[in-house]
Write a structure and sequence with these properties.
With about 500 residues, the chain is of the alpha/beta class. It is built from 16 helices and 23 strands. It folds into two domains: about 1-250 and about 455-480, Aldehyde Dehydrogenase, Chain A, domain 1; about 250-435, 3-Layer(aba) Sandwich (Aldehyde Dehydrogenase, Chain A, domain 2), CATH 3.40.309.10. It has helices spanning about 40-60, 60-80, 80-90, 95-110, 115-120, 155-165, 180-190, 205-215, 225-240, 260-275, 290-305, 325-345, 380, 395-405, 420-430, 465-470; strands spanning about 1-5, 5-10, 10-15, 20-25, 30-35, 125-130, 130-140, 140-145, 170-175, 200, 220-225, 245, 250-255, 285-290, 345-350, 370, 390, 410, 410-415, 435, 455, 455-460, 475-480. The strands form six sheets. It has a seven-stranded mixed sheet with strand order 15-16-17-14-13-19-20, with helices on both faces. It has a six-stranded mixed sheet with strand order 10-9-8-11-12-22, sandwiched between helices. It has a three-stranded mixed sheet with strand order 1-5-4, covered by helices on one side.
Length: about 500
């Protein structure tokens, strides 16, 4: 059986801890590989490798660092199909969805190729008599990223691309559920010219995470995952003097106004709610139709669409979505559907019993649709992370606005309407970090920043875009005087520029 180790010092190495996890094929339920779980000593070895490589990499001019990123883009394009197939085989998302996963990661690498411009500081000539004032952005040193199973290509690239481009070294701890693509990406970076040790990959569990959080050589940590773990990583990392950005769970709402194009809204809900089996932090899991008539029309249109979803193996080009990542995740989502029925929600479409012929042991689940969900129910309050959409009926616009604004999560939200005044008011007032107008999954492009509010985000700076450069660098400000003559005598007052 294939064994996945770690990537340290520019090469793949076997795990030595004696601990392993199973990597499943979600389509069949079979174990397809074993992944080594790093010991504290193995993680410390990766950190030492990163620490040794970082000074020379930081001294490499930004243009040359950008050229490595450019070469990496070419190499990924060369292996795009193989990477997408590998990703699908471990995660379960369709090949088309895996290609999107990789592409959205590459867009951040493309942004990082502009690092010579992005690192430019500020300069003020003659800020005072004979005084120039300027700032520089310098790398932090060793940085780290802890990334989730649902985007095993995209989110690692979101983390390491700007960090490395800024002159840092990086230790990546990807999800142990689908670790093969991050390992292959590390190999491609070496082929692109990245010096050994600048990027290291350690697979593992909490022991690996805690080592990264407590080792003083790691200066910054980024994380994406559940809110409870995000809060733990943020608190622990900050307590150990690190710069930390953590992104947690979500409960993304989509408001449907009475004047919305209803067919367009239904299309958006089907794609955003059930794509990738709902295993996206930006998936729409709550539909909020405004007014009884709107709700009745929306639900009537949704039911046949959910019932007709095509679910198939990740290799099926016609499938709308594939299996869930593990059996444990499948059972967890089913238990939430059981809970919703018990809480009194109306289960308009029940996908719990879905079985795919020839793949009976795979982790497949049909789409589920709840109607008449209320804010007091756990299926509304908690993130389900599966192919389950809840309809919460709002009496009017103000109630619809309050629902996402008052929810403990604040990742993404969308509104579908033909009215510009309503859309403008909504985008201004809603208490959520990312907003879509007639756009269900408002993930910004790489030159803007991605991040949610409330319990969806911990820390002051977001992912990719300008915030990534700010997060992975420290600002040094220089005040320089070049006097034309010699002035004698000490100055005992605070310096001013008068």
């Amino acid at each position: 059986m294939r064994e996945i180790g770690h990537f340290i010092g520019g090469k793949e190495v076997k795990g030595t801890s004696g601990r392993f996890g199973d990597v499943f094929n979600p389509n069949t339920g079979e174990v397809q590989a074993k992944v080594a779980f790093a010991s504290r000593g193995e993680v410390e070895q990766a950190i030492a490798s990163a620490e040794a490589a970082q000074p020379a990499w930081a001294a490499t001019n930004p243009q040359r660092r950008a050229r490595v990123m450019m070469k990496f883009l070419d190499l990924v394009q060369r292996e795009f199909d193989e990477l997408a197939a590998l990703l699908s085989s471990e995660h379960g998302k369709t090949i088309a969805d895996s290609r999107g996963d990789i592409q959205r990661g590459l867009e951040v690498v493309e942004f990082a190729c502009g690092i010579p411009h992005l690192l430019k500081g500020e300069f003020s000539e003659s800020a005072g008599p004979g005084i120039d004032l300027y700032s520089m952005r310098q790398p932090l040193g060793v940085t780290a990223g802890i990334t989730p199973f649902n985007f095993p290509a995209m989110i690692p690239m979101w983390k390491f691309a700007p960090a490395i481009a800024c002159g840092n070294s990086f230790v990546l701890k990807p999800s142990e559920r689908d670790p093969s693509v991050p390992m292959r990406i590390a190999q491609l970076l070496i082929e692109a010219g990245l010096p050994a040790g600048v990027l290291n990959v350690v697979n593992g569990d909490k022991e690996a995470v805690d080592t990264l959080l407590t080792d003083p050589r790691v200066r910054a940590v980024g994380f994406v995952g559940s809110s409870s773990i995000a809060e733990y990583i943020y608190a622990t990392g900050c307590a150990h003097g690190k710069r930390v950005q953590c992104f947690g769970g979500a409960k993304n709402h989509m408001i449907v106004m009475p004047d919305a194009d209803m067919d367009q809204a239904v299309d958006a809900l089907i794609g955003a709610g059930y794509g990738s089996a709902g295993e996206r932090c930006m998936a729409v899991s709550v539909a909020v139709p405004v007014g009884r008539k709107t709700a009745d029309i929306l639900v009537d249109k949704l039911i046949p669409r959910v019932e007709s979803l095509k679910i198939g193996p990740s290799t099926d080009a016609q499938a709308d979505y594939g299996p869930m990542v593990t059996r444990a995740q499948l059972e967890k989502v089913k238990s939430y559907v059981d809970l919703g029925v018990k809480e009194g929600a109306k289960l308009a479409v029940d996908g719990r019993g879905f079985k795919l012929q020839g793949y009976e042991n795979g982790y497949f689940m049909g789409g589920c649709l709840f109607d008449e969900v209320t804010p007091s129910m756990r299926i509304y309050k908690e993130e389900i992370f599966g192919p389950v959409l809840s309809v919460v009926r709002a009496k009017d616009y103000e109630e619809a606005l309050r629902l996402p604004s008052e929810h403990e999560y604040g990742n993404g939200v969308a509104i579908f309407t033909r009215d510009g005044d309503t859309a403008r008011d909504f985008t201004s007032r809603v208490n959520v970090g990312m907003v879509g107008v007639n756009f269900a999954i408002p993930v910004p492009l790489s030159y803007y920043t991605f991040g949610g509010w409330k319990r969806s985000g911990f820390g002051d700076l977001n992912q990719h875009g300008p915030d990534a450069v700010r997060f992975y660098t420290k600002t040094k400000t220089v005040t320089a005087r070049w006097p034309s003559g010699t002035k004698e005598g000490a100055e005992f007052v605070i310096p001013t520029m008068r």
